[in-house]
Amino acid sequence: MSRCIATMMGNFFPGSGAPDDGGKEHYRVRLQCEHGLTGGLEPPMCDVEYLAAFRTVVMPIANEFAPDVVLVSSGFDAVDGHAPPLGGYKLTAKCFGYLTRQLMGLAGGRLVLALEGGHDLTAICDASEACVSALLGNELDPIPDEVLQQRPNANAVHSMENVLEIQSKYWRSLQRSASTLGCSLSEALRRDAEEAETVSAMASLSVANKHIGKRAEEEPMEEDATM
Question: Which residues form the Histone deacetylase domain (predicted)?
Answer without folding.
Answer: 9-135
